[in-house]
Amino acid sequence: MDKMIQTARGELIITNDGATILKSTQALHPAAKMLVDLSAAQDVEVGDGTTSVVILAGSLLGAAQKMLAKGIHPTMIAQSFTKASVKAVEYLTEMSIPIQLSDSASLLRAASTSLNSKIMSQYSSTLAPIAVAAVSRLATQSSSDVDLRDIRIVKKVGGTIEDTELVENGLVLHQNAITDAGGPTRVESAKIALIQFQLSAPKPDMDNVVIVSNYLQMDKINKEKRRYLGNLCIKIKKTGCNVLLIQKSILRDAVDALALQYLSQMKILVVKDIERDEIQFLSKTLGCKPIADIEAFSEEKFGRAELVDDVSRLGSRLLKISGIRNMGPTVSLVAMGSNKVVLDECERSLHDALCVVRCLVKKRALIGGGGAPEIHVSRMLSEYANSLKGVESYCFHAYAEALEVIPVTLAENAGLDAIAIVTELRNRHALGERNAGINVRRVSLHICYLALAIAHSRNLKGLVSDVLDEDVVQPLLVSTSAVELATETVCLLLKIDDYVQAR
Ligand SMILES: Nc1ncnc2c1ncn2[C@@H]1O[C@H](COP(=O)(O)OP(=O)(O)OP(=O)(O)O)[C@@H](O)[C@H]1O
Ligand SMILES: [Mg+2]
């Protein structure tokens, strides 16, 4: 289910993303804060599975609590849980299916699964291919990771999510061309300079008071300003530059009205308010070097493109730079949506899908979803626990049972009878179907068309199916990381026996 969050500043967030939900909650207890951090850690590590990791940790804590009540020492529980998690990762790895990066169908299936649970699920046919294409452009056969900072999502209100697109051999900016002084909005054969200095009159270093007592002095100041700005603009024009990207400045105006007037007369397209953290992405994409001083302003630092155009798309203005010469290894995505709330969730969902594909670059293996791996690992761990003795065996059994929380939660969220589903899953796994899981897409169809009749009549055959056949797959790394991180946090909490508040 999705959550509606009202932030302290009155903003509205509608999301399904675990990390975002938890970040917005203001947890007070340090142990609760650790669970929020756990979700954030999973977000950094793999980007998806941020809800599962916390659900798993909660279930493990519940299991531990029952064992503590029986008098088992927390250190013993923590040790056994750590061993059980190592075994669980082994079983997960053993059931995974290795894939090749060139196998884009598999990448697409994994990206679609990550979008299935989101509000954006109806647009997964648009977003999943975009996520796969974006990561595939940056990854080579030999790469072991992809830096997602090289993929930029520009959000624009207008149209629907279906209008979201990947920009081919180009770049899109958040900012628009300035037209206040009548400057150009379209430039062909662009020579683009990215500057970090200001095109406005300098300010004194200290707070000085200059008293202007007559028009003559006023004229002198204006003349000096015109001369200073004119010189700057002439120097810029002389180099042949025709597109100027100006970094935002907090010291003084990045570009003032007079400079804009000169630049528009010189037919130079101006974009201001480039953020400091955009500089690296822009210079990498355009192949240009940021210029910090007018003295260093020279042609070899420019980026070149066939066209810079301020276009209008579905009611939004977009500054598009296309046909970039020697474009760097980056990708720009334009996310479109009818309002800000939808767009923000679209960005988070796209981020999850991008992370899923990145996980497959890091570790090229897939496993089924829909609770199938958890039930399999739970069964295998229980079997293994029978070969152990004493308390350790007991702890392994408890750990195995705790893993079943994932299929239980999936079933509950789909409005199904969780106990019946999990029992059916256990049966099917005992019969050797180790990829038997819940397919929620199929469940929703059942719910829509058969008005819950099938679910109530306990005819679970259609709901529990082979998840690999149903294309419900996820990266191995998401599951292994969730198991490892959740166990680590639970063990950390178990080893604490007192809480001291330092003042
Ligand atoms: N069509 C489907 N049928 C059944 N289960 C599915 C389906 N699609 C995804 N799942 C399962 O849903 C779970 C993921 O749910 P969800 O994406 O809401 O949470 P998360 O990945 O843990 O966290 P988040 O996406 O918020 O970071 C996984 O266990 C996955 O196997
Ligand atoms: Mg997910």
From TrEMBL:
Keyword entries, A-Z: ATP-binding, Chaperone, Cytoplasm, Nucleotide-binding
Molecular-function GO terms, alphabetical: ATP binding; ATP hydrolysis activity; ATP-dependent protein folding chaperone; unfolded protein binding
Localization per Swiss-Prot or TrEMBL: Cytoplasm
Principal localisation: cytoplasm
Record flagged with keyword Glycoprotein: no
GO-annotated cellular components: chaperonin-containing T-complex
Keyword Nucleotide-binding: yes
PANTHER family reported for this sequence: CHAPERONIN
Subunit and partners: Heterooligomeric complex of about 850 to 900 kDa that forms two stacked rings, 12 to 16 nm in diameter.
Annotated NCBIfam families: chap_CCT_delta
Annotated family: Belongs to the TCP-1 chaperonin family.
Name under which the protein is recorded: T-complex protein 1 subunit delta
